[in-house]
Amino acid sequence: xxxxxxxxxxxxxxxxxxxxxxxxxxxxxxxxxxxxxxxxxxxxxxxxxxxxxxxxxxxxxxxxxxxxxxxxxxxxxxxxxxxxxxxxxxxxxxxxxxxxxxxxxxxxxxxxxxxxxxxxxxxxxxxxxxxxxxxxxxxxxxxxxxxxxxxxxxxxxxxxxxxxxxxxxxxxxxxxxxxxxxxxxxxxxxxxxxxxxxxxxxxxxxxxxxxxxxxxxxxxxxxxxxxxxxxxxxxxxxxxxxxx
Length: 244
Ligand SMILES: [Zn+2]
Hints:
The chain is of the alpha+beta class. It contains six helices and eight strands. It has helices at 84-100, 104-122, 127-141, 186-197, 210-228, 234-242, and strands at residues 2-14, 18-25, 28-34, 53-60, 66-75, 147-151, 160-164, 169-172. Strands 3-2-1-4-5 form a five-stranded antiparallel β-sheet. The longest helix is centred in the middle third of the chain and has 19 residues, at 104-122. The chain is elongated. The relative contact order is 0.12. Bound molecules: zinc ion (ZN). Zinc ion (ZN) binds next to loops.
């Protein structure tokens, strides 16, 4: 028998009331069969929902790899499901992770961020700031993070005035090129630095202005598309939820 702490990210119907579950753990991805996941009276049904943090007892099955024996909810994200915006925020974070991170080491690295973020989004934290940070961390783990330590063109650490997403980071005053760069506010630069530097315990301090946050999320989904060919289904849903 195997015991694991995990966060459920994908629930795929299998046969009548069963599901194939994709979860992430502090060690990487975990897939298993959950019998009765769609059986409302079943003992495992409440825990086999997306974004639940659970403790799992698994056994090696005959045909389908690991099978769930028992699940205990450690943290329930169900309160987030009452808000379209919070739910959409969790959806896009889950989609970004599942589509971008293939390596178990990267998944292990994102685990503590996701764990914090789900808790914050389920409570009172501003959800778009969490989306922004989790997308930044995912980009960094995928090798497409922005350089927020220095100017990407000359290496200067002084007089940073812009972020160039195509070039991958900060641009200083003397390298600033009006044709290709757009100068940004102090807040925008501060947010970029925060997002690519923060630790899981810093997530509770993420509360950024709407316009800048949406601008980053839009640039990040473009970066994911350009670099990894990923198009995010839940991006439109998130934008609709913002404007509701
Ligand atoms: Zn420069």
